[in-house]
Amino acid sequence: MTVMSARNPRTGELDYEFVVSSRADIAAEAARLRAAQPAWEALGPEDRAQVLLRFADAVEAAAPQLAEALAIDTGRHAIAAIEVDGLARSLRRWAERGPALIAGLDREAKPSASPGFEIRADYTAFPLFGAIAPWNFPIVLSHIDAVPALMAGCAALVKPSEVTPRFVEPMLEVLAQVPELPLAYVMGGADVGQALIEEVDYICFTGSTATGKKVAEAAARQLIPANLELGGKDPMIVTANADPEWAARIALRSSIVATGQACQSIERIFVAREIAEPFLAALADAAKAVAITFPDPRKGHIGPFIFPSQGQKVQEQIDDALARGARVLSGGRVENLDGGVYLRPTVMADVSSDMAVMQEETFGPVLPVTVFDDLEQAVVQANNTDYGLSAAVLAGSTAEAAKIGMQLEAGAISLQDGALTSMVSDATNHSRKASGLGPSRMGDEGLLRFLRRRAIIIQTGEALPIDAYREGQNS
Ligand code: NAD
After folding, report:
1. Whose CB among 138, 244, 260, 270 lies 3.0–4.6 Å from 364's, allowing a Cys bridge?
2. Whose alpha carbon is nearest atom 43 of ligand 1?
């Protein structure tokens, strides 16, 4: 039996142990779920929705225990409660939307464009769905794809991050109240992720681009679809017509929520020279007013880094920028406080595109600001990244913002606000470049991707004789 430890991000202590799933455990869970899946799919969408609603009730009833476990792993209380609530809301939303969506699928027989045939479609779920999740939003990202997969009729096997495993213990008690739901967890790191891919028929991965490529390779070896939701380096363009104080408030929130450990965080800001001075002043003032949640974990805005080496990586980016001529207007130093690793919002000016902080994903509360004279150049710079997750534009009007937003290479564009992708669930989007691959997890596509279409082709005339293929008959 292999045991792994998890670190408490507030104390730095390894104060939680869990058993790593063995190959045999993973195979056995997969076999159990596969055996249960046909009956689950045969239940039909309405009855599956009822089960999801009962799961939502049970999640809500256990919200204090789930949120407490999550708060220890992530070092944040308010967001832990929001995550648990988010899972319940996602279950209710798919339970409501799923049956109508599945019932509305086109199953009508119709004449084919090829004369003499009639065609219709039939839909069946991929039997066993798998998910591999990161540590930044452990509950939400472990279930964001699993819930629509379950609604579609799949069974679901989920691997949470080994960095944030604590919610699984109370979640198993919740699941015990809904025994007909074919959902299970496997625990561990990269090896368990790889073993999971070998067991499932469809894999959804959320995490870094480097790991995403390894997941895609493993999925290719199994010939199964892989949906990848990966990293980002999201830009925000602020035009001369934007109100500088309003823009500064939005830029700050869009960049530092969850200590910047969100994939769709704003990580590069481009501001027009005309308003750069008041914008930077307002941004630095607002940044200095943000409190870290230390020493009282229930007071303040931003908590410690969940993953300790993250703090070191962010400090290296800041130091690299300083060495190349950037200026720090607020924050700037990672602090180790009683074993927790914190960074106050760090606004940086005089940055340039060769700096690591402008190229690599930061995943911290850092706001590098570039002043531009030419809007076209700003768009070129905003697109000058390997990533294409999302982007934002703040302008004098929605029309002005939209015109600029249409030129940005990203899967989702927020206009007159930032980082809106996490706030809406029905905006279908396809990440670009190194930020992801595959159908959208948002919108109806989030469920429809788990249904395979089977073509039913009906001969309505005479079946072709073999003589139709006789060589030489037309010569
Ligand atoms: P990570 O890639 O290190 O790990 C993610 C998961 O993959 C973990 O469960 C890990 O155990 C597993 N894993 C690691 N190596 C593996 C392998 N070889 N095969 C199979 N599984 C393996 O990511 P992380 O550090 O946990 O999360 C942060 C990253 O996630 C950031 O890059 C962030 O941008 C990204 N992210 C993206 C989205 C999105 O929707 N696009 C959302 C949240 C986070």
Report:
1. 260
2. 263
At residue 104, the pLDDT reads 97
Token code pair at residue 168: 């699984």
User: pLDDT grade, residue 474 (50/70/90)?
Assistant: low
217 counts as catalytic: no
| Nearest partner of 326 among 353, 362, 344, judged by Cα | 353
Q: What is the pLDDT of residue 473?
A: 62
Q: Which of 263, 389, 421, 432 to mutate to test the pocket of ligand 1 (most atoms within 8 A of CB)?
A: 263
Using pLDDT thresholds of 50, 70 and 90, give the confidence band for residue 308.
Answer: confident
| 406: Cα separation from own chain's centroid | 23
Q: Measured between alpha carbons, how far is residue 456 from residues 120, 278, 408 in Å?
A: 5, 64, 42
Amino acid 136 reads N
User: Residue 132 — pLDDT band, cuts 50, 70, 90?
Assistant: very high
93 contacts 85 by C-beta, under 8 angstroms: no
pLDDT in tens, 276-296: 999 999 999 999 999 999 999
From 29, 204, 263, 360, the catalytic residue: 263
For residues 19 and 1, the answer to whether their CB atoms sit within 8 Å is yes
Do 240 and 262 form a contact (C-beta atoms < 8 A)? Answer: no
For residue 214, pLDDT over 70 is answered with yes
444 CA → ligand 1 middle, Å: 24
- Pocket lining: 268 vs ligand 1, CB cutoff 6 Å: no
Cβ atoms 146, 156 nearer than 8 A: yes
| Ligand 1 atom 26, closest CA | 134
* C-alpha to C-alpha distance for 233 and 230, rounded to whole angstroms: 11
The answer, yes or no, to whether any atom of ligand 1 lies below 6 A from the CB of 217, is no
Atom number in ligand 1 closest to CA 214: 18
Helices (H) and strands (E) in the chain, counts: 16, 22
